[in-house]
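Reopening this ticket.

The earlier resolution said the output was attached, but the attachment link was broken on my side. Pasting everything inline this time so it's all in one place.
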Amino acid sequence: MSSDDGNFEVLVVDDSPVYRKLVEQVLSAEPYALRFARNGAEAMSQFLEHSPCIVITDWMMPDFSGVELCQRIRAENSRPYTYIILMTSNTEKENLVNALGAGADDYLTKPFDPGEMLARMGVGRRIIELNRELAAKSRKLEEAARTDPLTGLPNRRAIEEWATKQLRGAARHGFRLWVVLGDIDNFKTINDTFGHDAGDIVLKTFADVLKKNTRASDICGRLGGDEFLLVLTHVEGDNIALAVNRFREQFAALSFPLQGQSVKVTASFGVTGSHNNEVEEFATLVRRADQMLYEAKRAGRNLVRAPTPE
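Inline output:
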């Protein structure tokens, strides 16, 4: 990791105070935040606490070797990539091949040349920077894969992943969880009459209403088309219809200026809940909410249909 001042964190592992000082002198003028360890155990402790982006380790240490340290660091594969340079006076080819096979990225021969150390550290920095760029792009792709591009809301995949975890928690701790399907009334007519750009405005506005009224402990997202999904927790059965009606009323109160007209648009909602202490499939709850939504549509639209309070 980088330190707070933007330097690269480097862990130097050597039981010799002379070599620790030599490395410090070479790297002190460079953008590195240095940490030191005298043996493998100290090195692993520091590595687990600070996740340095570069490790320079001696081959021979009092407790276990630098090669073993490489193996242990590589076993921590949930962390950002660490570039490892092994310092050794043993330059036999077979030993160096074994070190690289154990996870070292590069090696320095003792006694080391300061210019060579700086050059090899520069390679390490470039590799770390490339890994960070790839990780950042991967995070953006992962986020995009879970986000509806039009509204910016979570998509079905993201909601399912979140809701599945919440359902297990609801069964374990006995709190209520509600699945709500919302659907814009007569949306096809809006598209056919005013065009798809107008339809997109309505969808984004509906998404904003849902987002503004959804608590941090809940989630709302878009399934596709004009269908939206909410998962609400810790709401009693007597209050769920009131909670969902707030979404419906706020949206119905809006007017859309479309082609010189002031157009009112409404939405209908279907609600179902998980049963206490039962782990239910999320897909089953969505199907039940869809049935309630169908009832709301059939009863005249601009309605919420929820289970009768127990």
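Reporter confirms the inline version is readable. The chain has a mean pLDDT of 90. The radius of gyration is 30 Å.
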